[in-house]
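This section describes the prediction task in plain terms. A model, or a person checking by hand, is given the sequence of a single protein chain and must write out its three-dimensional structure as a string of tokens. No templates, partner chains or ligands are provided. The sample shown here is typical of the held-out split.
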Amino acid sequence: MLKPCPVDIDTGEVSVLERQILADWGYKHTAAATRLTLRYLENRSPIVNKVFRTAVLRVGVAASSSAASWPRLSSRRAAPLRRFFCGFFARP
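The expected answer:
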């Protein structure tokens, strides 16, 4: 039977540390969503976590689903404009 590994490595902590080192050296530029997610993962406060889930996740899902339905609603109105611009740019 194999013995368990004696090294206790937290891969999440290593990933965060690696990102910080690369950012300090100027090699890594993280997006705002990634920075927000990393702050959430580093946080230990239940109040802040609840506010984050409510504000970011629920509002973000609602915004994403409304943005996904927007092209279907506006496609009938946008068709004449699309034909105009496609025809305009197709001309020499």
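For orientation: The chain is about 75% helix and 0% strand.
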